[in-house]
Design goal:
heterodimer, A: about 525 residues, mainly alpha, 21 helices, B: alpha/beta, Rossmann fold, five-stranded parallel sheet, about 25% strand, Universal_stress_UspA (chain B), Rossmann-like_a/b/a_fold (chain B), Universal stress protein (chain B)
């Protein structure tokens, strides 16, 4: 009951004209960047970071939350109309959604996506209200060793479980951790990785890293692949659904929500896995299996609900533990740190107003998004006609301005360019961006807890093992890292029947791979978007 | 010598096409239909779909005209694409659809038609939809 009271209080705080305006701005910007492939909520939040240092934390967070949710709505529009997913989370939507659009049912596809997103987002946010405080209650009892273990689980989760290649994930994490190390060591006063450059002594600002990797890296990538055939504009009427469409959509919406929320909440979830699982489930359960591959509405409704629910789920570890599980959450976390607020289990106790206002704004933003997206979907699709040079000139301008504004040093601009080149190289060689940005943001925190644990135990390594939570955590880490080995052994022992137990990529197994692959090929830009858009 | 028409999938394009068919008949010359699709945008409203171009081909066939339908997919400048095609085939006349614009609208948006009118080295027939 306490939570609901606090939530109502949060609604009271949000319902001021200024805050509503920020929420509206957030959802509009979010939808816009969601529609545009390659430009995701993570990049947008990064670009807006320097601007928001002048705002109240609550207002900025309300806007960021709107951008985050809006990106999930907008991504589906592009998926359905262009067969080019606007966001990585709507890759699966493109499979059936675009077939529906080609069959002249674009309006219904857009409607089921928007309404499903709304329902899933609302249920997901409700679950967030119920689950998050419980986790906080548990988390405040954790000491440094346990907290370190949880961070390590998150590191391994984002780098080894998500994405196609563990090596690349871990390499990317290592790059991130190295960048996080730059600067003066707070304990010993030693300079680390500063190359004797005085400007690096304070470390590299997260804004510069995020903007460099997301905005400049993406800009360079697009510049290297500028020319590309345009698509025809598919005429869309007003999105609407018939009785039959409602009947076929509501169950997938709920099932998608059930898939999405828990996956968003665990550090290795992301939005791709649950959307894919939802798609596979709908295909199995559908009464019209023959329609799958030709535009089945269930195949749009389920995954769209799943990706919005996972967005809500992502906020559970972010608010309760200070752990980001996707890129947007990682940068929101950096923003919270930027205001001098310490994220983590104590956030709810110290800043209850901020947290509950943020959650209340999610409900409001979600409603705004439904109202914005349902009637305006055709207008959003017009954004796709903006010539890319204009778009990226704008992005690079904002990126440079943001990086310069942090400290007013020209040095940061060189750094920005360097990091942009790094971002370009990472895209070129298929390194996922998420582990890197998580490494940059959580690295210093991990080090802090690492040292604190050792200090508490007087330098005894056993101090790192702490209590049961840490044991479970490290157990999971060992299991995940050793999984290929274990799986290989199990397979050898049991003959060659080991496919079923393959937990890491079980849902993406055998027969499900083809549709996803065809959708990703339609990206026309390699593995770039999947890492970006989260 | 050829009659060249810039085709876009809307009523301006249709008006231009109709006028060009008449012109080709009157001059007893082959017809070249060009559709320009920009390559720096994700979706282009001026891009004619394959079915649309096929329909145009069929219609021209039925009229018994010697005609070619071409799509240009490179670059971001429809005027330049059209003028280049005109130079290529040594067009005797260039037919385009013209949109009504207020002076202010003209100022803001610039105009492909204006570029074509100013830069073409052959006569240009500018048509407005009925």
């Amino acid at each position: 009951m306490d939570n609901l009271n606090a939530l109502l209080q949060g609604f009271g705080d949000v319902l001021t004209p200024t805050n509503l305006l920020f929420a509206l701005a957030g959802v509009i910007i979010g939808t816009a960047v969601g529609v545009l492939p390659g430009i995701g909520p993570a990049m947008t939040v990064a670009l807006l970071l320097p601007v928001t240092y002048g705002l109240e934390p609550a207002q900025a967070l309300i806007m960021f939350a709107g951008i985050f949710y809006g990106g999930m709505y907008g991504g589906s529009t592009t998926s359905i109309l262009l067969n080019t997913p606007g966001e990585s989370s709507s890759v699966v939507t493109a499979i059936e959604g675009n077939m529906m659009a080609k069959a002249g049912r674009a309006a219904q596809a857009l409607a089921t996506a928007a309404i499903g997103s709304f329902i899933a987002g609302t249920i997901g946010t409700m679950l967030l209200v119920l689950v998050m405080p419980q986790i906080v209650k548990f988390a405040v009892t954790l000491g440094s060793p346990e907290y370190l273990a949880i961070i390590v689980v998150a590191f391994v989760g984002v780098s080894a479980v998500l994405g196609s290649s563990r090596i690349r994930g871990l390499a990317s994490l290592l790059i991130g951790l190295s960048i996080g190390l730059v600067g003066i060591d707070r304990v010993t006063g030693q300079q680390r990785l500063t190359l004797g450059i005085p400007q690096l002594a304070d470390g590299i600002d997260v804004v510069v890293v995020a903007v460099g990797i997301f905005a400049v890296g993406e800009g360079l990538w697009v510049a290297a692949h500028l020319r590309r055939k345009a698509a025809e504009v598919i005429p869309v009427g007003q999105p609407w659904m018939g009785k039959q469409d409602w009947k076929r959509s509501w169950k997938p919406w709920l099932r998608g929500t059930a898939f999405g929320f828990p996956f968003g909440a665990i550090p290795a979830g992301g939005a791709e896995l649950p959307t894919f699982m939802s798609y596979m489930t709908e295909r199995k359960l559908s009464k019209h299996p023959e329609e799958f591959g030709k535009g089945a509405i269930e195949g749009v409704a389920g995954p769209e609900a799943a990706n919005n629910a996972s967005a809500a789920g992502t906020l559970v570890p972010m608010l309760a533990l200070g752990l980001p599980t996707n890129a947007t959450a990682a940068i929101m976390l950096a923003a919270i740190q930027g205001w001098g607020i310490e994220p983590g289990p104590t956030l709810l106790a110290r800043e209850p107003k901020l947290v509950w206002a943020l959650i209340a704004s999610l409900f409001i933003g979600n409603t705004m998004l439904l109202l914005l997206n349902l009637p305006l979907a055709p207008a959003w699709a017009k954004l796709l006609q903006i010539p890319r040079p204009y778009l990226y000139a704008g992005i690079l301008f904002f990126a440079s301005m943001g990086a310069y504004a942090v400290q007013g040093q020209p040095f940061d601009l060189y750094l920005l360019l360097l990091l942009g080149l790094l971002g370009f190289a990472m895209r070129r060689f298929g390194l996922p961006v998420l582990p890197m940005i998580v490494g940059v943001i959580l690295g210093p925190l991990a080090e802090l807890h690492f040292r604190r644990s050792l200090q508490l135990s007087g330098g005894e390594w056993s101090g790192l093992l702490g209590g049961p939570v840490a044991w479970v955590g490290y157990g999971i880490v060992v299991l995940v890292l050793a999984w290929p080995l274990i799986a290989a052994i199990v397979r050898r022992v049991r003959g060659d029947d080991g496919g079923d137990g393959d937990g890491t990529n079980g849902p993406a197994g055998s027969d499900g791979r083809d549709p996803l692959k065809s959708a990703t090929t339609n990206f026309g830009r390699g593995g770039n978007v999947p890492d970006m858009g989260m | 010598m050829t009659v060249l028409v810039g085709y876009v999938p809307n009523n301006y394009g249709e008006a231009a096409l109709t006028a060009a068919v008449e012109e080709a008949g009157r001059r007893q010359e082959p017809l070249l239909v060009v559709n320009m699709s920009r390559d720096d945008v994700l979706a282009d409203a001026h891009r004619a779909g394959e079915e649309q171009l096929d329909r145009v081909r069929r219609d021209l066939d039925e009229l018994g005209l010697t005609a070619e339908v071409r799509r240009v997919e490179h670059g971001n400048d429809p005027a330049e694409a059209l003028l280049a095609a005109a130079r290529d085939v040594d067009a005797s006349v260039l037919v385009i659809g013209l949109r009504h614009r207020t002076p202010v609208g003209k100022l803001i948006l610039g105009s492909t038609a204006q570029r074509v009118l100013l830069d073409a080295s052959c006569p240009v027939l500018a048509v407005k939809p009925a």
